Input
Amino acid sequence: MRHFLILNYLLVLSLVAGSSFAQSGDHFYGTQPWDAKWIAPPGVEGTEYGVYHYRKTIELTALPATFNVKVSADNRYKLFVNDSLVSLGPARGDLFHWNYESVDLAPYLKAGKNSIAALVWNDGAYRNEAQMTSRTGFIMQGSGQNEAVVNTDNSWKCIRDEGYKPLRYYFIAGSGQIVDMNKIIKGWKAADFDDSKWPAANTVGNGYPKGASDAGWMLIPSQIPQMEMAYQRIPVLRKTDGMNTPAGFPGTKKPVIIPAGSTVTFLLDQTHLTNAYFTLDFSKGKDAGISIGYAETLYENPDDKDKDNHPRKGNRDDVEGKFFKGLTDSILSDGSNMQSYTSLFWRTYRYIKLTVHTKSEPLVINDIYGTFTGYPFKFNAKFNTDNQEIKKILEIGWRTARLDAMETYMDCPYYEQLQYIGDTRIQAEVSYYNSGDDRLARNALNLIDHSRLPEGVTMSRWPSHGTQIISTFSLWYIGMLHDYWMYRPDSDFIRDKLVGEREILDFFNKFQQADGSLKDVPYWKFVDWVGGPGWTMGEAPKGSDGSSAMLDLQLLKAYQWSAALEADLGMAGYADLYKKRAEQLSATIHQKYWSPEKKLYADTKEKNTFSQHVNSMAILANLVSKADLPAFSKRLLTDKSLVQCTIYFKYYLNQALVKGGLGDGYLNWLDIWRENIKMGLTTWAEDSNLQYARSDCHAWGASPNIEFFRTVLGIDSDAPGFKKVKIEPHLGDITKVSGEIPHPDGKIAVSYALVKGKWEIKINLPKDTNGILIWKNKKYDLKAGNNTFNI
Output
């Protein structure tokens, strides 16, 4: 009994130690409230749709060197100083981690009178699914005594703009808007604007840093930079109905006059998908109605739909005989000169349908353009080749990754804008390989960790005001932790996440049977958007006993990842526990699902359905012996009776084939990406059914932007934090290629050239980094700096 009590005491100590890790990872920012208050317009409940203007005029005797403030809002804000846009936000989070942005206003201030103004809006019931909210509010706090003059309180003025209404349209990414230029408040951002009739703002709460109170918004500093903003012309007019259009419009700024009593429609083509704040400058046209539709593509016959009610798209470059369907904004002109409309939130589009209905007065389009926006990633990798197809795939992949990266990673920019774990794992690796900027990945890992339910499983996506749980995505989250640990030199960051990793595995352990196999795991168990025997809503087949090879393999892989993390960063006891569970599950999977006749793993114990998915995971989870790998991998690649992976799960399939020794064939595995290009896509579609794919931009398809570097050039991490490097190229028919990727200590550069029957190989590693070159199954040591071989 005494030994039992000691063991329990030690277990309690280990759990307390584990809890301290969680606490240290969730930072707290003070115990005292801010001097500034959350303010809101008088007379509103705070949960309804509304667009509001806040402003305060300040006098400065001299131009300050710095003028730092903290600013946030619910739902969103645009901050202006003396009519100049200086900040947008806040970065999306949840109420327990509500971001504020830190901004230096000094570059926009002047001696004398200055206007500090904010456009704040709450989309109410029409808000984006990713938008969390408490109520309408705005807060700004100066960093010191001199800046305290801008602290929000009832000295600020605030008013609702009655010119904005929601344009109701069921859309997870939010609604359109109706703007009546007769009612909107103009000139309100200028220092000399007369706001004497505006009411004083109401105080609706204290500004509490996280750790000070459980009320309202728990404020934390945003850990990511402000989004990029870049002027972007719309270059091409594809069609006009109702009038002749001057040459060069809209690529060149020039006036276009819409006659009175007309209905004119313009179909504009950005020529590639983009995320942008759309701007239309126009004059006159009293009471003219303007409709602006945004679409990824045009559609063919509206009656030709798939089983999920998605219309047929056809080639994305084609416009003839197609119909337009998309999110729409609407404007009513007040007839004055130089009216200007910019969407409150950014829009995603390749095509814009601009329709103008004039009444008794002509309307003049003065200009039309977009302002591209996105997380400010820079492409810091190089892949030097004469192969134009490779260049095109990398270009499209990078565009896809960029459009799916904003204040969080997103599954798609047009439809949902949600940070799903399955998508985000691949997106984060694209960031590591192509940019080296890990801030958005860190932000994602924090947010996902925050989303865990008390039972241990994470949300499938976060932030999200609705509840959706894809239990299998919690296992991919553990894979994300392992990825970060291997590629980024920040073990403490991952150590803080180990309590969450343990809780996830504890959740799944509750559904493990005596042999370790899972049964009756709750929630959505999405794997891939495929059709096939037993596949339903992306879930893999389940046997008569309730078990599934795919789920068992994902859990096995999670145990293997976790054992490695715990052995290095956590507790030996957990590492041993997860190793033992992995060993048991490995034996069970082989006994339960292996088919001696087909020499592959089946989807269920009945062994009547087989998939690339299960057998890819079997390779990645080390169930296939080294001697059997080549033949096993060839069956995986060539057996067309297997349920085939779509563009998403090819990320795992292709890694398995490389591990199986077939990596020299990588360039032959890119047919789905080639089909995307042939179909006129400028970003990668959501799934492999390109005619009916719902989304034309899913970054989970951008895996070639990893594999051209990891597989073809062969650059990979061989130790936590990328402290060691493994170079194992798979060049196929390529005889000359070079490139580089960012590394935490600089860059890794490689060059391969076949010259007179010998390979000239050059490898440059960062300081304090060594590694190995694997060439034709032979290993060569690599040191920091330059390494040269002639083989």
User: Anything to note?
Assistant: The two ends are 67 Å apart (CA to CA). The CA atoms of residues 707 and 767 lie 25 Å apart. The longest strand covers residues 263-284.
